[in-house]
Structure formats: C-alpha cells, structure tokens
Specification:
The chain is an alpha+beta fold. The chain has a domain of 101 residues. The protein contains 1 helix and 4 strands, in the order αββββ. It has a 4-stranded antiparallel beta sheet with strand order 1-2-3-4. Strand 1 and strand 2 form a beta hairpin. The protein is rod-shaped and about 95 Å long.
C-alpha cells in the first residue's frame, strides 16, 4: 500500500509542475501578443500622421503652383501692369488671398512685396508680387511652402 500512495503523490507533483510550466508559457505568449499588437498600433498611427503631413505639404505646393500659373497667364495676356484682382488672386471680400479646398485639402496663399510686407490691396500690380507663401492643411496638419518670384 505504501507504494501505491507514493505513486499517487509523484503523479500529483508532476501534474502540478506541468500546470505551472503551461501557465508560464501561456503568460509569455500573451506578453508577446500584446507587444506585437502595441507595435502595429504605433506603426499605424505613424503612417497615418505621415500621410497627413505629405497631403498638407502637397496642398501647400498646389497653392503655389496655381498662383504661379495665374500670375504667368496674366503677365502673358496683359503684362506685369495688370492688377492682382484682374489675375483672380483676390478673395470675394477683396482681400489679396488665394484660397481653395480640394478633396478636404485646403491651401491659403499670401503674397508679399519686395520689402517683405503682405500685399493687401487688390489694385496692386502683378509685378509687385515678389514672394508667395502657401499654407496647406489636411487632417489637422499644417505645412507651408514659400517661394521667391523673379521677373
């Protein structure tokens, strides 16, 4: 009878250590899974942030390109003596500001004279524009592009 009791005790001890070993392995697997999930969520946020930044920059660049296109077209058709208003670079409120929203991407363009002052009169001449600053916005991210205008 003693032998039977000893075998039962040994079997219970082996079962207990197997359970502890299984719990340790299971805990390690859970920690690894949480780490992988956390890393993937962080990567997703970073890629989304990068996409928004690129879109905001492209929007600002679009504002510069569209402004330059209007300026060049105006100079070709009417010369540098055309007013900023005639080049369709003024807002409805007669502010010298060129702004658009395209596919949830917004840009606002501001024009500067040779002294670095903001041009605020729509009757000023196209030739007085020496610098263009465009601010692009997308998804809460803002990026700016600034270029010099030469004759």
């Amino acid at each position: 009878m003693l032998k039977k009791k000893k075998n039962k005790l040994v079997k219970k001890g082996k079962l207990g250590s197997a359970l502890v070993f299984t719990l340790i392995i299971f805990s390690i697997m859970i920690v690894i899974a949480i780490g992988v999930f956390s890393t993937s969520v962080t990567d997703e946020k970073n890629s989304s942030s990068t996409e928004k930044s690129i879109s905001a920059f492209q929007s600002a660049d679009t504002g510069v390109e569209m402004s330059l296109e209007k300026i060049n077209h105006s100079i070709i058709t009417g010369g540098a003596n055309m007013s900023i208003s005639d080049a369709n670079l003024c807002s409805v409120d007669d502010e010298v500001e060129f702004s658009r929203t395209i596919n949830n991407r917004k840009f606002t363009v501001t024009f500067f004279d040779q002294n670095g002052h903001i041009i605020s009169d729509c009757d000023d001449l196209i030739g007085s524009i020496k610098r263009i600053k465009s601010i692009g916005e997308f998804g809460g991210v803002v990026r700016a592009v600034q270029v010099e205008v030469t004759p």
